[in-house]
Design goal:
Elements lengths: L16 H9 L5 H5 L5 E4 L3 E2 L9 E8 L4 E6 L2 E9 L4 E7 L4 H4 L5 E11 L2 E5 L2 E4 L9 E4 L8 H15 L9 H6 L5 H9 L4 H32 L10 H5 L8 H15 L5 E6 L5 H14 L3 E5 L3 H15 L6 E4 L5 H13 L4 E4 L13 E6 L7 H8 L6 E6 L5 H7 L4 E5 L10 E5 L4 H13 L3 E5 L4 E2 L5 E2 L15 H12 L5 E4 L5 H12 L5 E4 L12 E6 L7 H8 L10 E5 L5 H12 L3 H12 L2 H4 L18 H17 L9 H10 L9
Parallel strand pairs: 2-3, 6-8, 11-16, 11-17, 12-14, 12-15, 13-14, 15-16, 18-25, 19-23, 19-24, 22-23, 24-25
Antiparallel strand pairs: 1-10, 3-5, 3-7, 4-5, 5-6, 7-8, 7-9, 20-21
Bound molecules: adenosine-5'-diphosphate and magnesium ion.
Adenosine-5'-diphosphate binds next to helix 10.
Amino acid sequence: MDITLDTPLRQFPGVGEARSQKLEKLGLRRCADLLSYFPRDYEDRRQMYSIRSAPLGQKVCIRAMAAEHPRLSRIRKGLELVKLRVVDQAGALHLTFFNQSYVERALRAGEEYIFCGVVEEQGSRRSMVNPIFERVGRQNFTGCIVPVYPLTAGISNHLLASLTRLAVDSCAKDMPESLPRGVRLDHQLAQAEFSYRNIHFPESFEALELARRRLTFEELFYLSAGLALLKNRRGDAPGQAVPPRPAEEFLALLPFPPTGAQRRVMEEISADMASGRPMNRLVQGDVGSGKTAVAAFAAWLAVKGGFQAALMAPTEVLAEQHYRSLSALLEPAGVRVGLLTGALAPAAKKKARQALASGETGLVIGTHALLSQGVAFARLGLMVADEQHRFGVSQRAALAAKGNAPHVLVMSATPIPRTLALIIYGDLDVSVIDQLPPGRTPVATYVVREDKRARMYNFVHKLVGEGRQVYIICPAVEENAEGRMQKAEWAEAGPALDLKAVTTYAEKLQKEVFPELRVAVLHGKMRPKEKEAVMAAFAAGETDVLVSTTVIEVGVDVPNAALIIVENAERFGLSQLHQLRGRVGRGKHQSYCVLITSTRSPEAMQRLKTLASTTDGFRIAQEDLKLRGPGDFFGSRQHGLPQMKLADLAGDMRLLQEAQDSARRLLLADPGLRQPENRPVLERVRALFADTPDIFN
Ligand code: ADP
Ligand code: MG
């Protein structure tokens, strides 16, 4: 049979209708799909053992001769056994195959085979159950390094490896070499054919590394090229020039002098907005670094320049907080500030929309509601997204589309390693606020077990007695800003039996532990109006202890709060805990973070101790990446980037930088990828971004 890259898998030997449907579940339809379906691991089957020398309890390959004809027996309906004795110079091995009656015909007495399986021993009798076997001299899966693929029910690794073997042997040579020759030479990358062969059936681990490097580079290269194309295209659109103003005018409104870092970022923003090209800037700053003031500056600049500005927050609570603080800050300077969230009553919503459409509102603060259809601006000049990691690329694009190439500013507290930021936000410039406002004492962090609970409650009494306020955080089912229910991440960690249900816990605290204190509760399932009222009361100092779910995780700013207690702390990610801890230590008071856990896992304990030992959000984020993988940053593909098959965006940092530099250079020479030798690159970029039409089409 002639197999080409286009041959449907249905036509492969051993693939019937049922199997081809299952293969399709893995995204495998044609021969070419198999070649790009990469192993998740490898098994080294190069070493051959004799029956006597083979170690027990692990998979090994043994070369031996069938000493007899296999014996087939039907034990009962649905259970067939094939038994057989094989021998080498020094020993005998007893094989049993369950429900594989074909073995009776496949193995011949007197022939030599490689058997691959786990050896068991009873007395001096050695045996093996269900080994894989191949005739000596006709080996594909023994005596070599074999691939281990991600599987689905009904498709075994052996089947997939056999199909891929056929695909590689027939078609690896036909896989197009899409990387430009110059790029391949510059970065010393292996050729396509070699790489596809060795990623599946490596000749050696060195060859595998070369193959992996090339294919990973390729993936990152097309990703970078796509993002760079996008950036070029945006750069072509004329932006709205916002005339610069003396920053002192704005700084006079602030109740504090800005930090050097805030000043620097304000200058960068001012230059961007005046340039006549649309700004696309990510401002990255650890919790408490003062990003809000920077956002306020940009909004002030836009409104004073005759434009409207919009600030999009990920939660109602945060939107309302920004609304309160920014109207206090900017109204005195003549900026009309409005609020637009899904929580507003229909009449209020309508009024807010009208004020936006007429241009009466200068700065609007809102949630995802800002993205909805009925929202129109008179002259949107700037859009700010706060705590960006909650927004996808496409949401950003949707809001930006409401204006005529408005300036875009994105604020993120998750300190993403810089290279990673560049790839996620590859179409953005990056500013870093790498300095905290003066006078902050680091939050003292403690990891404690249940036995310290009474002491901790005493500590709450003491602090409240001194006039401070306290957060107590419980993991619980959370609601997101769109009102859809989503499980907080702890839910994946296990059953929620011993979790402190937030409402009952708050009632218990009020009744039994803090009868004389003012305890309030806040969680995502409350109505927006209630949430707003609770938060406002806490901000005004009318509540002593706020028992809350992680709805307060991002952005909430109450400088008088000096203690945060996190229950079941092991259920949270490190970056999330760092965010939570950032709710305190925002004022002049010494602040504390107490992580309560009853975990027995040493790793979980180690994680929590990491948090206690540093306040450097950057280090914490990297630790999180190491421990939990990039899920926190890339969860549910919110970033809107295409899926990577091989590349680990967090781990392949050096290669990523190389690929990015290389893609930039290529695009500098051929901005539209129009030269014939670059056509394959353009096609691959298109294919890669085919599933994310919002960002690239
Ligand atoms: P984040 O970067 O986490 O969004 P915020 O903008 O909420 O931080 O600022 C944290 C706190 O620090 C707020 O109470 C804010 O008023 C205060 N703050 C911001 N900048 C300064 C500064 N330069 N000097 C003193 N306090 C500041
Ligand atoms: Mg903030």
